[in-house]
Amino acid sequence: MPQTLNKPPEDSQAWELLERCLLPFVFSHAVAVIVATILNTFGISQISSFVLFLLFLSVSLGSTLFYHNLKVTAAGKAILITGCDSRVGNALAKQLDDLGFTVFATFSNKNENNEIACKLKDQCSGRLRVLQLDVTSERDIHSTFLYVNEHLPDGAPGLWGLVHADAWVALGECEWIPSSVLKRSVEVNFIGVSRLTQVFLPLVRRSKGRVILVGSLFARIPSPVRGIHCAVKAAVEAWGNCLRLEMRRWGVDVVIVETGEYVSGSAWLKDNASLLEQARDMWTQLDPQTRREYGQELFQKEMIALERYTLGPEADLTQTTRALTDATVRTFPLRRYMPVSRGERIRALLSDHLPKPIYDILYTD
């Protein structure tokens, strides 16, 4: 039984509230200075800019907090979640079902995960539907679209939420990853996400719903051995930001939830029993010159070190599930949620703003 990862208390909700209130704070200060200057110049009033600032701030913050806590009604709304064979997708399906949504929980391979699918169905209400959906299969995508379109709740104009929780993680140095594994990672994590969204956007537009992307903090943090994962997640986030701008005219929200360490989907390197065997397969596919330059000892040492990514303690998904739920139920969701630890948040901040040579010294082994 894997142990649960013990992390410091999360403060992601405080950061989200701070982000929401930052603009009203700046706006109140600017308006207060302008209004006070005009009143004093024309001798209308001698009120100070500080008093006006407090007045405007109380009104703007009160309005912001009111709108921040508004939630949609779950009854009559449908959500499609991909990757429910992962811990993130599975936990979210249960949470949204408990809130009263009609959930279409999809599995990338329903036959292989039949036990998990049956358990999920038993733990949830009769509203939840379990479907087969391989996001790399055009046939699965269209058959799922037809099923969802025919089984929307009565009176629902379309699909309220499309949550991309499916992921396939490829680990290893960039030069070592076989082309077949690289192709699979791109197909699942990027092409599948974009194609599934294209097919379901008409349903989402009809309900003025939202598209929710489960990203990764490593889209912004360079990390050796996870280069392919960093690259595909960065591609998804860039694509999601563009989609958000395009969908504004339709009233459709596009939300990115950046998860942290250990919160991933299925990994190519799955367990310790097959780890060394997969490492040898990868090694034999390298050309002889590359094998000589790296050396057998270095290769095996780095591959064994990957166990901390595949066999590490299980992450506490409470904050991730909470962020995904907020992105679904808030009337005015944030554009980005970061349910990560304080250390991960600081690392992302330093990666964004520190000179790269200094960041590399601090965080690269």
Automatic annotation (TrEMBL):
The keyword Glycosyltransferase does not apply. Pfam families: adh_short (PF00106). The keyword Cytoplasm does not apply. Keywords: Membrane, Transmembrane, Transmembrane helix. Gene3D superfamilies: NAD(P)-binding Rossmann-like Domain. One of its GO terms (molecular function) is oxidoreductase activity. Signal peptide: none annotated. InterPro entries: NAD(P)-bd_dom_sf, SDR_fam. GO terms for biological process: steroid metabolic process. The chain crosses the membrane at residues 21-41, 47-67. This is D-beta-hydroxybutyrate dehydrogenase, mitochondrial. It comes from Neodiprion lecontei. The gene is LOC107218014.
